[in-house]
Amino acid sequence: MNAHQKKMLNIVGTLLGIGMLIWFFTLISFHDLIEGIQELSWGIIALTALLSLLSYYFRAARFYHPLNKRIPMYDLFIISLIHTFTNTALPARSGEFSFLYYGKKYSGLPLGYLTSSLVFIRYIELFVLASSFPIMLAFVPTRNAIFTSLYYASGVLCILMIIGFIFALLYQKHILTWLNKQISTSKIKKYAVRFFIHFFEMLRDVSARPTHIAWCFFYTVLVWYTAFFSTYLLVLALDIPFNFAQSTLSGLFVILTGLLPISGFMGIGLWEGAWVIALTLQGVDHEVAITSGIVMHALRALLLVIFGGLGFTLHHFRKEPVVTPEPHDQTPQPHSDVA
């Protein structure tokens, strides 16, 4: 897919989301919407904001060990604020590049190493989210065909991911040796091979201390379950008769739809659509589902903008000079023959 096609897909996704949001507004009354907003007390809003801020800290902490502690936690926190904002606001996860940009700016680490660390964390994140589906479904009172399908699909995905991770750990030396022999004069192939070399070097460095992998996993769990708990608080405040598992399952369904390439700016419309589907599949009235979806997404978007602005402000007033390594500086030095 070329740049023009991606741009068109992003525009279509945004327009589709806006159209869906307008349609939702025709299905509910303005009075219901105002009533839904009024149900959120300042205490609930403050607690949601606090949990969101805590989630940003956990997002930063999980990168600390994969990046060889080269970026201080304060700087990682700033990157986390900006990265989460851009990645959520921009379509098709194009905001991932902000992590590479600011990570390079703050540490001077090679882009290949930063990219590998990001992919590693996303791998763990996918496993945490996939394993959450069957766990939460075990505590849901009623199931339907869609959730049952997700139950088995997520279970199979978790098994495959565990097998793949064990294989990568056991054969990383052999894979690195093979990759070093694959360097080509072709730029595309050369960059692809170098990425995998950086990835397996990063994996080797992290796996040399199993506690580092455990910390990455632990912080990733905290990232998402802090977010799920804040969602549950909002669900309770809006008088939706859900337990924690049902609320989390709905949140997971929204995250799943967020992976679609048609996701537009800030997930407008599509976020609400996924939430409405998840709730109606569990027997919630569509008016309640729509109202709660709009109210919750509006609050999430507001907090996202506030914390994103905080990240850009902290970056602007950052006292320490930005790291600009010499051209020959490629730290951390890889153990292979490729810089």
Structure description:
This protein is mainly α and 339 residues long. The chain has one domain. Helices cover 74% and strands 0% of the residues. Helix 5 crosses helix 6. The longest helix is centred in the C-terminal third of the chain and has 31 residues. The protein is globular and about 65 Å long.
Give a brief outline of the structure.
With 339 residues, the protein is an all-alpha fold. The protein has helices at 3-27, 30-38, 42-61, 73-89, 96-107, 111-137, 145-170, 172-180, 187-207, 210-237, 244-258, 270-280, 286-316.
How many domain regions? 1
Element order, helices and strands? HHHHHHHHHHHHH
User: What is the 3D form?
Assistant: globular
Helix and strand content put the structural class at mainly alpha
Cα Rg? 21 Å
Strand fraction band?
under 5%
Count the beta strands. 0
Calculate the terminal CA-CA distance, rounded to whole Å.
30 Å
What would the average pLDDT be, to the nearest integer? 81
Name the poorly predicted regions.
326-339
Q: Percent helix among the residues?
A: over 70%
Helix tally equals 13
For the sheet with most strands, the description reads: none
List keywords for this structure.
mainly alpha, disordered C terminus, 339 residues
Any chance you could write out the topology, listing elements then pairs?
Layout: H1 3-27, H2 30-38, H3 42-61, H4 73-89, H5 96-107, H6 111-137, H7 145-170, H8 172-180, H9 187-207, H10 210-237, H11 244-258, H12 270-280, H13 286-316
Helix pairs in contact: 1-12, 2-13, 3-4, 3-10, 4-5, 4-13, 5-6, 6-7, 6-9, 6-10, 6-11, 8-9, 10-11, 11-12, 12-13
